[in-house]
Design a protein that fits this description.
With 457 residues, the protein is mainly beta. It folds into 5 domains: 85 residues, Immunoglobulin-like, CATH 2.60.40; 80 residues, Immunoglobulins (Immunoglobulin-like); 78 residues, Immunoglobulins (Immunoglobulin-like, Sandwich); 79 residues, Immunoglobulins (Immunoglobulin-like), CATH 2.60.40; 78 residues, Immunoglobulins (Immunoglobulin-like, Sandwich). The chain has 1 helix and 47 strands. The chain has a 5-stranded mixed β-sheet with strand order 12-19-18-14-16, with no helix packed on it. Strands 21-28-27-23-25 form a 5-stranded mixed β-sheet, with no helix packed on it. Strands 40-47-46-42-44 form a 5-stranded mixed β-sheet, with no helix packed on it. A hairpin with a 2-residue loop joins strand 27 and strand 28. The relative contact order is 0.06.
């Protein structure tokens, strides 16, 4: 306002003097008359960024303001300045793998600032993966400094697949899948973001032997065991028994055969094992002694009682009698040398029919005892109306006694289940009767249930 008043006053004075000369006065702060030059000591910056400075040269009365056209390039000095001076700015760090540039402007002067690309860096969550022989997956997390960083993942074997693809950008997860394997332990190498990741798969070697056991006569014998395994799977065979020997095939790889020899046996029965490909092969050799139980079997009533059986064998052959059940007790002759009696006592039976044995000298005596189960039904009979009607029969018996039900009339239908054990209830349905009275039966737990159905009036 002061400058405008002075100009107006001068024009008035000149007009009053009657002079026709025109005079133009320019405000020294008008930018159109200012000569400005801008320079920067540094215009290229590293990916880490940093601080920079613009040097502005202009007339003392000239006003100016510095501007940036990028968010990553900011001035640390702000506002309007006058005359020559400097404006400081900051270049932000970048993690992107591409260079970038922006302009700083003062009046009509521009300075281009560039920033070099950042190198891509990658960090892997693991450098080792392991999967079981049955196959399975693994995951490697890849972390990079920029979403623009590109990288790849690939495997050097065909039994490993990368389920999430091969090309990636930025941080991502690599999903690896290994196929099932039936051979020895194996190893693969993955290249992920130019780094090596080792993948190991545990051995899938499985071994089967055929047969898994054998019984050899007292005279001894030779035999063979077949080993089934994948190629490359190694195994060995050893004997855990002094009278059985590995004759051939003590060690091999893949499928093979082990031959063994069993010495003659002059004593009681014996058992031993071979270890073939990590599996146990059982050898049973019968005794040189011969035994016979007489009789070989007996049937007892439900009340039980005593009994005697005889062991027939040669002198010097020892034997032990063992019962398979508590209700079949050995009361005498539990052990013997040569021929002798074995005394038994059979306990009463209040349940279903049962059987058990007594073993002695490799022989088995079988005792069978009749059932002691008792059954009753309630009601034993019933009269039904001519319409559809349900029915139920309660069965009373001992807890372990089995029973079943059957219908002898097609108009009486049993509901499932039709058999049970111990006390229970059987349900049935009586169909509608379109005619005169009729009678029918159900057999429940061996007992007869009588039914009478009235006819239509």
């Amino acid at each position: 306002m002061a400058r405008a008043a002075i100009v107006t006053l001068l024009l008035a004075i000149l007009a009053g003097c009657g002079t026709s000369t025109s005079l133009q006065i320019t405000d020294p702060g008008t930018s159109s008359k200012c000569t400005t030059s801008v320079s920067a000591p540094a215009t290229e910056f590293s990916p880490e960024g940093g601080d920079g400075q613009l040097n502005v040269t202009t007339d003392v009365n000239c006003l100016w303001t510095a501007h940036s056209n990028a968010a990553w390039l900011t001035f640390t000095t702000s506002g309007e300045q006058q005359g020559s001076g400097a404006a400081t700015f900051k270049v932000a760090a970048t993690t992107d793998p591409v260079p970038r540039s922006a302009s700083l402007t003062v009046v009509d002067q521009q300075v281009t600032i560039t920033q070099r690309a950042a190198p891509c860096g990658y960090r892997l969550s693991t450098l080792e993966l392991s999967v079981p022989a049955a196959g399975g997956g693994g995951t490697v997390e890849v972390t990079t400094n920029s979403a623009l960083c590109e990288w790849t993942a690939q495997a050097d074997v065909d039994w490993v697949s990368i389920a999430s693809g091969r090309a990636y950008k930025g941080s991502a997860r690599v999903d690896v899948q290994a196929a099932a394997w039936a051979g020895p332990a194996r190893r693969a190498e993955l290249t992920i973001a130019d780094q090596r990741v080792a993948l190991t798969q545990s051995t899938g070697c499985a071994y089967d032997i055929v047969p898994t056991s054998t019984t050899v006569s007292a005279a001894g014998a030779r035999g063979a065991v077949s080993v089934q395994s994948a190629a490359g799977c190694s195994w060995s065979a050893t004997s855990n028994t002094p009278w059985a020997h590995i004759a051939a095939g003590a060690a091999s790889t893949g499928p093979g055969v082990v031959e063994f020899a069993v010495e003659a046996n002059l004593g009681p029965s014996r058992a031993g094992t071979l270890t073939v490909a990590g599996r146990s092969f059982s050898i049973s050799q019968v005794s040189g002694c011969t035994y016979r139980l007489d009789p070989a079997a007996l049937t007892f009533g439900f009340a039980g009682g005593p009994a005697n059986i005889a062991m027939t064998t040669a002198p010097g052959c020892t034997w032990t009698a063992d019962s398979e059940a508590g209700w079949l007790a050995i009361t005498g002759g539990q052990t013997g040398n040569g021929p002798g009696p074995v005394s038994l006592s059979v306990a009463p039976n209040s349940g279903p029919q049962r059987s058990a044995g007594v073993r002695a000298g490799g022989q088995r005596f079988v005792a069978t005892q009749d059932s002691g189960c008792t059954y009753s039904i309630n009601p034993p009979s019933w009269t039904f109306p001519p319409i559809v009607h349900p029915g139920a029969i309660t069965v009373t018996t001992q807890p372990d006694c089995p029973w079943s039900a059957t219908s002898q009339a097609d108009w009486m239908v049993l509901a499932a289940p039709t058999s049970s054990v111990g006390p229970g209830v059987i349900y049935f349905t009586v169909a509608a009767n379109p005619a005169g009275p009729r009678a029918g039966t159900l057999t429940v737990a061996g007992l007869v249930f009588s039914a009478l159905q009235l006819g239509v009036p």
